[in-house]
Automatic annotation (TrEMBL):
Subcellular location(s) per record: Cytoplasm
Pathway the protein contributes to: Porphyrin-containing compound metabolism; protoheme biosynthesis; protoheme from protoporphyrin-IX: step 1/1
Name of this protein: Ferrochelatase
Record organism: Gelidibacter algens
Family membership noted in the UniProt record: Belongs to the ferrochelatase family.
GO cellular component: cytoplasm
Amino acid sequence: MKKGVLLVNLGSPDSPEPADVKTYLGEFLMDERVIDVPLWARTLLVKGIILNTRPKASAAAYKKIWWDEGSPLIVISERLQKGIQEKTELPIALAMRYGSMTIKKGLQELVDKGVEEVFLVPLYPQFAMATTETIVVLAEEIRKEFFPHLKITDLKAFYNREDYITVLSNSIERHLKNRPYEHLLFSYHGVPERHIRKRDITKSHCKMDGSCCITPSPAHEFCYRHQCLEVTRLVAEKLNLKPGTYSSSFQSRLGFDPWLTPATDLTIERLGKQGVKNMAIATPAFVSDCLETLEEIAMEGEEIFHEMGGKEFTTIPCLNDDEEWVSLVSDWIHDWANSETVTA
Ligand SMILES: C=CC1=C(C)c2cc3[nH]c(cc4nc(cc5[nH]c(cc1n2)c(C)c5CCC(=O)O)C(CCC(=O)O)=C4C)c(C)c3C=C
Ligand SMILES: [Fe+2]
Ligand SMILES: [Fe+2]
């Protein structure tokens, strides 16, 4: 059977204009795995409130980070795709969960090349309803409806794989070389606390008090919070970071429900107030730089830090098209292709 790969990232609006941002946010926020309330409440919240207020401000933010070639997240994902394609004969397609580069188009592209077995690669290190799950579920719905003959295997969250932690640690270390810092903050995209409890397969593990995520549990296979904290722990171990010189936080809170804490903006503020002069920040929930890293962290975060008296604020780029990262994803693809051949 001919094999191929579909890389899937989050997506971006077609342009940073309010109308395109509105269309994109409409699709994104109407996803029941992103805003997980009943349809009537989601419609009221998204179409009645958010889409009437947010697109203008979001468009202004997108304009600040937009590149001549397009959305950074898309351009960077395309570079990753190209880098991987140079290392393999298998067709590598790229799709986005939201926006015009749909998963259906990506699967069609592979099918047009004769592919019958697809390795689906959600470009997220950690599992969440709003990341891996929504991609895998939609891909399966599309497969059933349009490509019933296709076989799809998905790459699981890779947050604790030794090879991934090595590549991430090397990248962080490289960017911090000759840049002394007092505190390294690992900032992850936040989710509402409710999302974590909903995916607690034991129904009793998740306490949300900070203790559960360090107690081994089968619940951690689907615990976004555990998986984020584990990335910090493993990188800190690899880089020999001293306790007290690093911490984790969660960014991009939306709405009034309780989200994961501590919040990144408040953490940056606290560090500045405590007299930290040089800080660095890594964002390992994202594999590609995007609005949330280039604007919210590198611009807004830096501004908060300076207002609090901080001086050097180093934003560490995401893995993007880092050579070691491209090689690592290519290796995972080869492992999949070869193991399937062996068991077939
Ligand atoms: C890294 C994983 C992500 C999770 C988990 C996630 C959850 C989540 N996001 C929102 C709302 C918004 N997110 C927005 C942008 C955005 N989110 C992610 C990733 C995750 N989101 C990325 C990579 C981006 C950037 C996209 C880009 O084009 O660069 C936005 C739009 C921007 C804005 O208006 O601020 C919103 C809104 C919710 C509600 C949520 C809940 C689980
Ligand atoms: Fe988001
Ligand atoms: Fe937990």
